[in-house]
Amino acid sequence: MSGLGPLWQIANREIGQRARSKAYLITTGLTILIVLALIALPTIFGSETEESTVGSVGVGNEQIVQTAVGLGNANDDPGVPPSVAIEVVEFEDRERATAALEAGEVDAVLIEGEEVVVQSTSGFDGSSIANQLQRAAGAVQIQMVIAEQGQQAEDIIELLTSDPLELTTLSEGDPAESESRTIIAYFGLLLLYMAVLLYGTWILTGVTEEKSNRVVEVLLSTVRPWQILGGKILGIGTLAIVQLLGTIAVAVVALRVTGAFDLPPIELPAVLNLLLWFVIGFLIYAVLFGAAGSLVSRTEEANTIAMPMSMAAVAGFFVSIVTLDDPDGPVAVISTFIPVTAPFVVPVRTALQAIPVWQYGLALLICVASIVGLTLVGGRIYAGGLLRFGGRVGVREAWQSANE
Amino acid sequence: MLSVQDLHKSFGDIRALRGCSFDVGRGHMLGFLGPNGAGKTTAMRTVFRLIGPDSGTVTWDGKPIEPDDLLRFGYMPEQRGLYPKMRAMDQLAYLGRLHGLSKTSARDSAQSWLERFDLGERAEDPVESLSHGNQQRVQLAAALVHDPELLVLDEPFSGLDPIAVETMSDVLREQAKSGKAVVFSSHQLDLIEDLCEEVAIINAGEIVVNGNVETLKDRAPIRHLELEVEGDPSTLVDALEGVLSTKLNGERLTAVISADTDVRGFIAHAQEAGKVRHFAYTTPSLSDLFREAVR
Predict the structure, then answer these.
(1) Residues of A with CB below 8 A from B142's CB?
(2) Any idea which of A150-159, A242-251, A291-300 has the lowest mean pLDDT?
(3) A36 inside domain
(4) Is B29 helix (H, G, I), strand (E, B) or coil?
(5) Among positive and negative, which fits the CA dihedral A322, A328, A329, A331?
(6) Predicted confidence (pLDDT) per residue in A299-357, tens digit
(7) Higher per-residue pLDDT: A243 or A175
(8) pLDDT at res. A269
(9) What's residue A152's pLDDT?
């Protein structure tokens, strides 16, 4: 039988046993829920009209309120509920108005078109309406100055809320597309980060468990160490990819249904590039986690030994955020050539079109070579570590006790 | 035939094997004995390439053991190992498949072994829910599920109740009878004496005794003698040559004598002394051989 038969059996067992496990179902459910929440929440809150009630004392307030409503709704799309609505309640004097403010019946009080009273300015509520009124009051003053020269009030509002500036970027291609690529890359590396920490830990504890319940000796009496490690990574990796694709599918459907964002035009090469680096990143970390798992005999010790890999993943994630700001900077370039950070950084730089072809090629070469090298080294450490029971095995000791 | 030749293996300063050799032919059952730490487990692990010897060879049918040969071997390690949360049936079928069985034959074989061990009704239960003895049976089934040509069992009887020992013995006998090569280690010498025609005794990494149990006994330089006469048997011993040790328990005399002592004259002498109620002249037991060998 070729070496791949047992590897597939082992992968199959991992999938069969783990796909049924509560841990997998719960994490899948939670991930989908979080994605749905992220998509749905802005839609729910974003579509609402911001309603406020303003108390009015004396004269000269009406024009400010009207201008505030006009300014707030100036950029609304036709046919949707207005962004801002302000109800005005008249009060006879300042005392009654502030009493109503204290009681929460009004959000702010305008006095004689010259003063605005709010509960406090520390919170979010109240200050928003105060800002709207301030802006409006300023506009009204300009309006009055210009009105003296014969201009219409409506024209002035239009002038004040002119169309936003057109945005052009120096890099090639459509800015919208490049933005979409960045979003996809960012989304992708977030998923990679989660997958590395979650499924890397699964591989680690899976290996340690087999060692602690001694089933590994039965397995090794038939199967080669690289087949066990490879099968485990293949099986758990498949679960990771299924969860990833499932989450993306749910996200795409949810985006289409809610129309929360204009879905950026998804480019197939960008997605494939992301998938490639996801697989590369996952494999690098998986081999490291697997080899580390073989060095400890008890699951309690597994957390300690996972530390270096977890730290590397955190570093990779943060470096990729730095890269978003400075895709050509030294941090970005150096981390492109380090196997544990490259899978986080390269997709971002590719998306921003800030990576020369030679750097991309070299990074790919380094990563693929690392996977091969790590599999050989990690496989040997794994083989040597597996049958050393009791306590923690040193890397060198594991290397030496491997017989192949 | 499994042939282990002159294995040497050191772990750091510890010399685990220092010239370990034994053979097990198809249809034969070898009892592998030795005190704790003598190197039994290390020797068994080398058969499965779990440990690479520093020198020496392990061959199957005259050829060095290749990974593909391992598919036709069955192993029960001293430290039992199964997936605790996996169902007994799934577990056995999985191990069967790892040994190259098809899906259906793996399940069929798993089913029949579970039934053989009276575990048919527990087939869908996770292994961790089974009793210790039943887990041990599943472990044996795991070594047998792919119908191996060679069975290597490390302490298969440890921790079993007498009924389970009986089942285990029957299975091993059947396996050897049907042409499998079987080797197992044990500290239960009476059991080995009962089951095995051949034994190998290992001490401090070296095989010190190896061969057919009866032949070994015949070749032993000592014999056991038991005598019970009406009257005092102790004076009779003086008439016997080559006495190595004697023990008197009431009227019964037991003596260890040299194997080349002629006891015919002694029997006549004893009959003259009084009525002989009991007389036994036997080869030493396996325990005696073992104690002698590892001293």
Answers:
(1) 218
(2) A150-159
(3) no
(4) strand
(5) positive
(6) 778 888 888 888 999 998 888 888 887 888 888 889 999 999 999 888 888 887 778 88
(7) A243
(8) 78
(9) 64
Most confident of A112-126, A322-336, B83-97, B255-269: B83-97
Tell me the pLDDT of chain B averaged across its residues: 88
Beta strands B181-185 and B198-203, pairing class: unpaired
- Residues from B contacting A (CB-CB < 8 Å) are 45, 48-52, 67-68, 70-71, 73, 75, 77, 79-86, 90, 94-95, 97-100, 142
Residues of B in contact with A389 (CB under 8 A): 79
- How many domains, in total, are found in chain A? 2
Interchain contact, B50 vs A216, CB within 8 Å: no
Q: Is A17 on the interface with B (CB under 8 A)?
A: yes
Chain B partners within 8 Å of A216 (Cβ): 81
Using the beta-carbon criterion (under 8 Å), do A9 and B94 form an inter-chain contact? yes
State the residue range of the domain holding A219: 173-401
Min Cα–Cα distance to chain B from A8, Å: 9
Question: Which is more confident, A398 or A93?
Answer: A93
Give B38: exposed, middle or buried? Use CB within 10 Å, 0-12, 13-18, 19+. Answer: buried
**CA-wise closest residue to B69 among B181, B205, B186, B154:** B181
Nearest by CB to A1, from B68, B75, B84: name it: B68
Residues of B in contact with A6 (CB under 8 A): 98
Look at residue A14 and tell me if it is in a domain. Answer: no
Q: Do B67 and A214 touch (CB under 8 A)?
A: no
Q: Do the strands A50-57 and A108-111 form a parallel or antiparallel pair, or are they unpaired?
A: parallel
Indicate whether A20 belongs to any domain.
no
In the predicted structure, residue B184 carries a pLDDT above the cut 90:
yes
Residues A177, A156, single domain; the answer is no
CB contact under 8 A, A387 and B50: yes
| Average pLDDT of the residues of chain A | 79
Does the structure show a pLDDT above 50 at A1? no
With 0-12 / 13-18 / 19 or more C-beta atoms within 10 angstroms meaning exposed / middle / buried, residue B167 is middle
Q: What residues in B contact A211, CB-CB < 8 Å?
A: none
Query: One-letter amino acid identity for B83?
Result: Y
β-strands A108-111, A115-117 pairing: antiparallel
- Domain-terminating residue out of A160, A190, A209: A160
pLDDT at B173 over 90: yes
Rounded Cα gap, residues A331 and B235, in angstroms = 100
Q: Is the pLDDT of residue B277 over 70?
A: yes
Question: Measured between alpha carbons, how far is A291 from A284 in angstroms, rounded to an integer?
Answer: 11
- Do A194 and A312 belong to one domain? yes
pTM of the model: 0.73
Does A1 lie at the interface with B, CB-CB under 8 angstroms?
yes
Domain harbouring A57, CATH code: 3.40.190.10
d(CA A185, CA A285): 19
**CB-CB: which of B52, B75, B86 is closest to A218?**
B75
A224: chain B residues, CB-CB within 8 Å = 67
My answer on whether A234 and A136 are in the same domain is no
pLDDT score for B96: 94
Cβ contact A156:A143 at 8 Å: yes
pLDDT at B148: 94
A97 in B contact zone (CB under 8 Å): no
- Token pair listed for A230: 């490879």
Contacts of A9 in chain B (CB under 8 A): 94, 97-98
CB contact under 8 A, A220 and B50: yes
A350 and A225 both lie in a single domain: yes
- Residue A126 is predicted with a pLDDT of 44
Domain for residue A30, yes or no?
A: no
For A86-96, what is the mean pLDDT? 86
Angstroms from A404 CA to nearest CA on chain B = 8
All domains in chain B, ordered by first residue: 2-213 (3.40.50.300), 220-294 (3.30.70.100)
> Chains A, B: CB contacts under 8 A, how many?
63
